[in-house]
Amino acid sequence: VFLFAPFLLALLVAWALSPFVRWIHERLGLSRQLSALGLLGLVLVCLGGLAWWLLSAGVGEILSLAGNWESLVASFQALVDGLGGRFSRWMSLLPASVQTAVDNMVSQLFLWLETAIPLFLSSAVERAADLARGLPSFAVASVVFLMAAYFFIADFPRLQSAARTLPPGPRRLLSQVKKAASAGFGGYIKAQVILSIGVFFILLFGFLLIRQPYFLLLAVALAVLDFIPILGSGTVMVPWAAADLLMGNYR
Description:
single chain; mainly alpha; elongated
């Protein structure tokens, strides 16, 4: 799958960019090869500029987060202490049996966290190491993808003509595979990507509105979390909102 992934992605990019290449070829009179090269270069420049802006802003926020770590921990501790005080006052109004049951639940939660957090951190470190080891392969795959994308875009009409000359059996099979992939897996990925992008911009605007200092970092992290079907951004946003409401931070 890894060997064919750059070519499949390049074919998908060629299919998406082919109408724009045809428009440039017909309107400006440039050759299809030159149109494909120019459009692919423009897309790469735009994506590179966006990635550079996101990376520079993200690194700046990470450095700021590291510099203000102690104050953030202190503010988080104050939030926990405030919630603990409110929770203790509410608990004093409940019967003794209910208080005992809640205390047992809280103790079990802390015991679970003591084992879950180290496992999560070790897993994160292992994944980071795997990503670092996979950077050379990713670089090679990126070069293969760019070359394949250029050739596919430049010769996309020939590829379409070649596909039409296939016998009816293979052509019908490819059509069924295309429909199943676009309706099933492709539709799911498309929906998740659209939702994650929408969540990113909604959170980015909201964090800017309330002047959250780490607006970009939080928006990206929560958008990635929203891409995970079981978790979602509400895993963080709902407890965060509930804690702010309980502490009177209505803004």
